[in-house]
Amino acid sequence: MNTVAAPQEGAIRVALLGCGTVGGEVARLLTEQAGELAARAGVPVELAGIAVRRPDKHPELPPELLTADAEKLVTSDEVDVVVELVGGIEPVRGWLLAALKAGKSVVTANKALLAEHSADLFEAADAAGADLYFEAAVAGAIPLLRPLRESLAGDRITRVMGIVNGTTNYILSAMDSSGAGYAETLDEASRLGYAEADPTADVDGYDAASKAAILASLAFHTRVTASDVHREGIADVTAADLGAARILGRTVKLLAICERVTDDDGVESVSARVHPVMIPRSHQLAGVGGAFNAVYVEADAAGELMFYGQGAGGAPTASAVLGDLVAVARNRVVGGRGPRESAHAALPVRPMGQTPTRYHVSLSVADRAGVLAQVAQAFADHGVSIAAVRQSDVGDRASLVVVTHQAPDAALESTVDEISRLDVVHEVVSVMRVEGEDQ
Ligand code: NDP
Ligand code: HSE
């Protein structure tokens, strides 16, 4: 890697925290494309220091730039911008607050931190007149947060729905095409390097929930944290679920769904959730395979928009980080700032139980008179309207598939609970929420 010999006059000086998968690519591109970046930013952009946990493990980096003391680096007089690519909440939160307080702008890809503490970070940025950019925190290379923060700032967004976790999308795509179960597919994904050694944050939906919190906050001008997001992972998705979906021309995806919900009295709230969903194979999100991400945005004036691309990986994520860095540099050149936090709407967050959803329920039932009536009665007792019923005979049993209209999620859950206790029901084979069809 070429090193920067001495600070250039007027250059924007960057402290890079973390030089792993993403940070390594940022360092490489910052150096290899220094001339291009300077031309685009209107000023040279240089590395002033790189903080890593184990400097001795980085012979590829210029030793004079390396340090293990991120805390000291972020407030150095030599630094204008801090690019944080370490991850996790502490000690990173403290470093970034200190950096902002010292007037440094911050670029980060840290969704876990932003999903919990963006309000504090924005407040610190405002107090110091600094920038806070985080395009890479959701959907890697895909320009998605800038469109929400800027391009759609004049519109009224009603829904953001998409695939924001590549690991789970890879696993579900593989289960769909092979017919294999969850555990063996996860093992295969780990062996091939698509899932991390500890895949918990991905498969249990924490990563997607953090991203949903960030998307909902930006889309609805409301502070939404990860703990406001209803979260279910993919560990309970079975080969039977995918089989049931296939029979009906559907597939299963882990979706982040952020919606503006208006109740009967016209009161608006925000719903944010992450869970497995059955969608028609004809839906654009169904065709998103492997580790790719795709996000659907609906807005009153713009209509439907779709964003698609690589949601992870060193170089793709570095692309988004460098875009932010150029934006910060441009702002500094003209003496302005990028967009601040926009949380003026402060809408309440609707609990999952009150969120309107639709269910697909696949049952194995006794094949005799009155069974369908009992099942239908359970739905009616909970105020849930049935949209479609499909029955096929399997020996002395029948396979019954019920797809509902929209109802509060809690009503659907209680219905399934009651049905599972009916004598005529042998087994609840699959229960999954449905999206992407008429309500
Ligand atoms: P890595 O684990 O590859 O790299 C982390 C880096 O942080 C390493 O260089 C590590 O040092 C350094 N580090 C860890 N602890 C400290 C510490 N206490 N002080 C100084 N440095 C430290 O992470 P990624 O590059 O994958 O991810 C970075 C961020 O980007 C995360 O927030 C992640 O969520 C986000 N992100 C990642 C994507 C991806 O595809 N990987 C996609 C989108 C976002 P050392 O090298 O010495 O161990
Ligand atoms: N673990 C994440 C994923 C990386 O699988 O999508 C990108 O945030």
TrEMBL record:
Q: What is its EC number?
A: 1.1.1.3
Supply the alphabetized keyword list.
Amino-acid biosynthesis, Methionine biosynthesis, NADP, Oxidoreductase, Sodium, Threonine biosynthesis
Q: Which domain of life is it from?
A: Bacteria
Binding positions for NADP(+) per the UniProt entry: L17, G18, C19, G20, T21, V22, G23, G24
Pathway listed = Amino-acid biosynthesis; L-methionine biosynthesis via de novo pathway; L-homoserine from L-aspartate: step 3/3; Amino-acid biosynthesis; L-threonine biosynthesis; L-threonine from L-aspartate: step 3/5
* An MF annotation (GO) of this entry: homoserine dehydrogenase activity
Tell me which cofactor or cofactors this protein depends on.
a metal cation
| Gene3D superfamilies listed in its UniProt record | 3.30.70.260, Dihydrodipicolinate Reductase, domain 2, NAD(P)-binding Rossmann-like Domain
- Identify the residues that the record assigns to the ACT domain, covering every copy: 360-433
- EC main group: oxidoreductase
GO biological process: one example? methionine biosynthetic process
Residues folding into a coiled coil are: none
Annotated residues for binding of L-homoserine: E196
The reaction(s) catalysed by this protein are:
L-homoserine + NADP(+) = L-aspartate 4-semialdehyde + NADPH + H(+); L-homoserine + NAD(+) = L-aspartate 4-semialdehyde + NADH + H(+)
Show the active-site residues: K211
Residues the record lists as binding NADPH: K111
**Known function:** Catalyzes the conversion of L-aspartate-beta-semialdehyde (L-Asa) to L-homoserine (L-Hse), the third step in the biosynthesis of threonine and methionine from aspartate.
Homology family: Belongs to the homoserine dehydrogenase family.
Name of the protein described by the UniProt record: Homoserine dehydrogenase
Give the source species. Answer: Amycolatopsis balhimycina DSM 5908
